[in-house]
């Protein structure tokens, strides 16, 4: 009975400690990625906007989101750097079209069954 409380305490604290370490490691990785941004990088913001880095300073990033359309973002808003080139046809292309077509087919199938 004496060992029950210390074992219970250890059983609760170890997962919390490991979770905090994992979060800290992930935050350091994201901060490192944001610090290493360079002009020409294809990025995605935390809100899901795709863009290309055209200018940088200490706290902000200028992204070209369409031809001759440049917006300014905080560095912290950059979620990831894309490794492959993302073109306009890929961002609004086949995946979105396939999903719409599949949804239309499902709706049509339901209507014909009724």
Automatic annotation (TrEMBL):
Region: Disordered, residue numbers: 83-114
Entry annotated with the keyword DNA-binding: no
Membrane-related topology note: Single-pass membrane protein
Subcellular location: Cell membrane
InterPro entries xref list: Preprotein_translocase_YajC
Originating species: Nocardia gamkensis
Gene Ontology cellular component annotations, sorted alphabetically: plasma membrane
GO biological process: protein transport
A Pfam family assignment: YajC
Family stated for the protein in its record: Belongs to the YajC family.
Underlying gene: yajC
PANTHER family from the UniProt entry: SEC TRANSLOCON ACCESSORY COMPLEX SUBUNIT YAJC
Protein name: Preprotein translocase subunit YajC
Tree of life domain: Bacteria
UniProtKB keywords: Cell membrane, Membrane, Protein transport, Translocation, Transmembrane, Transmembrane helix, Transport
């Amino acid at each position: 009975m004496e060992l029950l409380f210390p074992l219970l305490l250890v059983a609760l604290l170890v997962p919390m400690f490991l979770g905090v370490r994992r979060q800290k490691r992930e935050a350091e990785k994201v901060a490192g990625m944001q610090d290493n941004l360079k002009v020409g990088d294809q990025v995605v913001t935390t809100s899901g906007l795709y863009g290309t880095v055209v200018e940088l300073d200490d706290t902000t990033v200028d992204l070209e989101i369409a031809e001759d359309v440049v917006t300014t973002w905080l560095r912290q808003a950059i979620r990831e750097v894309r490794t492959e080139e993302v073109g306009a046809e890929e961002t609004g292309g086949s995946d979105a079209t396939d999903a719409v077509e599949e949804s239309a087919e499902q709706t049509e199938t339901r209507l014909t069954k009724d």
